[in-house]
Design brief:
Helices cover 52% and strands 7% of the residues. The chain is an alpha/beta fold. Strands 2-1-3-4-5 form a 5-stranded parallel sheet, sandwiched between helices.
Length: 332
């Protein structure tokens, strides 16, 4: 029978697992059935799952907890989750919504209702799968740019991780954390249109070469612009080279005119540039990097409040030193 998608069922009741599995397999769905939340998360790491049916009251890891894990993981957050529960009170439904659940089914489960909701959510999943594919293409393109230079290895992934940590520290909502996560990867995607002779030039750029280099932010915004899920990412791509005193590019924005997410990415980008190895020097220590960044705050380049918040965060974490993206002198 044609496979209409793969459904993960997590329920500690074997009779309920069998009932749900039989109903779904009769309609052409592939089924993976597990008995608890831990096994469900392991199955999600191991298999390509299109939809999850979660019992709420499972031993150890509840359905609410599993749902939160799924929705907070960028790799699985677009997978529809249905909570299957005998709990009909308002408080539990609110808890389910806060956990990120896409729908609810009440026990006893009616077969027609189950299949109707599964069909509807899997149709939505087909659209989000196209979205995921488009995002993966953009991420691959961004990482291919990074891979051309041995001194950029890991730069984008570090920026993505650092920016999210700083955003969490500052209390940003989940949509902006997702924008920072994506922005760290694709912020320099516009460099795909910049000649390699400029990207990899060892010395200072000429005025014309610098003008061309500065176009990468505008080009990057144009590349990612058609993707609606990237609307919060576009300000990061366009404005991560702006400076507080208005001397940055492409628009010469001043102070709070620069989007907060762009100021956050700029902060971690500068830190990564200072604390990673260069062809002509070793990475700076965290203490020396902080000193350089404070000097540049005094020059009016960076947001001093965000920089200090980053220092507070960084002092409590272990940061790795790796190869960096571009020479400090050029800050392209």
């Amino acid at each position: 029978m044609h496979n209409n998608g793969t459904v993960l069922i997590a329920d500690d009741n074997p009779q309920m697992r069998r009932l749900l599995a039989d109903l779904l397999m009769e309609e052409g769905y592939a089924v993976t059935a597990v008995s608890d939340g831990v096994e469900a998360l392991e199955a999600l790491r191991r298999e390509a799952i299109d939809l999850v049916l979660l019992d709420v009251l499972m031993p150890g890891c509840t359905g609410f907890a599993v749902c939160r894990e799924i929705k907070q993981n960028p790799e699985t957050c677009l997978i529809p989750v249905v909570l299957v529960t005998g709990l009909n009170d308002r408080a539990n439904r609110i808890q389910g919504i806060r956990s990120g659940a896409d729908d609810f089914l009440c026990k006893p489960v009616h077969s027609e209702e189950l299949l109707a909701r599964v069909r509807s959510l899997l149709k939505l999943r087909s659209y989000t799968s196209e979205l995921e594919h488009a995002e993966k293409v953009l991420f691959s393109l961004a990482l291919s740019i990074e891979a051309k230079d041995p001194y950029t290895e890991g730069h984008c992934e570090r920026l993505s991780r650092y920016a999210v940590l700083l955003g969490q520290h500052l209390g940003l909502p989940e949509d902006l954390l997702q924008a920072l996560r994506r922005g760290g990867i694709v912020h320099d995607i516009g460099k795909v249109a910049i000649p390699e002779s400029i990207l990899q030039k060892p010395g200072a750029l000429t005025a014309e070469e610098r003008r061309m280099m500065q176009q990468h932010t505008v080009i990057g915004e144009r590349i990612c612009g058609p993707l609606k899920s990237f609307q919060e990412v576009l300000p990061i791509i366009l404005h991560h080279h702006e400076k507080i005193d208005g001397s940055g590019y492409p628009d010469g924005l001043h102070g709070a005119e620069i989007p907060l997410t762009a100021r956050i990415l700029t902060t971690v980008d500068i830190y990564d540039a200072l604390t990673t190895v260069r062809p002509y020097r070793q990475a700076l220590s965290q203490e020396k990097a902080f000193g350089v960044m404070r000097e540049e705050v005094q020059r009016g380049w960076w947001d001093g409040e965000i920089v200090e918040e980053f220092f507070t965060l960084a002092s409590h974490l272990v940061w790795e030193n790796h190869s960096c993206a571009t020479p400090l002198e050029q800050r392209r």
